Prior knowledge:
globular, mainly alpha
Amino acid sequence: MDTLALALLALFASGWFVLAGADVGTGMLLPYLGRDPGERRLVIASFAPFFLGNEVWLIATAGVLAGCFPELEGTLLTGQFPVLVPLLAGWIVRDLGLWTRGRGPGRRWRALCDVAVTAGSWSLALAAGWLLAAPLTGRPYEPAGGPVAVLTALAVAALFAAHGLGFATLRLTGVPYERARRLVGRAGRPWHSLALTAVLLGGLPLAAGSTLTPGSHAADPATLRLLVPVLLAVTAGMVAVQAWIWRLFRHRVTEPSYF
């Protein structure tokens, strides 16, 4: 059971980086892809149907940690608390910007929400890189510092942005699409870039997790026997819903959404 729990933890963590990385990366580049209010609405419409479903994978990661690896979860929360604050703050700010963008009074409000989406997306990406820097450098239970932490955070954020660009080339139309395609390059098919960055982003939490030895911090067998079958059922539902959403919104966006 502990092996299955570990596999689920890896799946959820990698799933968040790959799936949420697409909407976070696109949000990071909102000022570049959308130069006027209409273009920015189109860019937001490209990832708006996905971001809530993608966030579920991060919640599931935290749930598996708390339920199946409680000792590890407590140690990580305590040791990485300074890193989790900007990550959660970025998450909240970005979601507030998305949810309230179409509900405020006028153009200035929407511009402020666009800033919140961009700033929150950058905070999420940089904090994720900072969080990964600690285990990747062999000190997983305290925040990484110095040039290594800065370089890792910037590299991971750049990877998020590249992933968002690949996603944008599959979803956008018109001038925003041309801007994304210009940076991605015109060699090969549009999905090649997204596939490459998905592999790289999905591998990051696996590489970082290998230094944590979560198997040695697993809950007692009775708890795992109770939780793992439930988690397997939840996972099947999550995958099914995710596949349905991506199929439903598989076409390129041609008009703004309600956001």
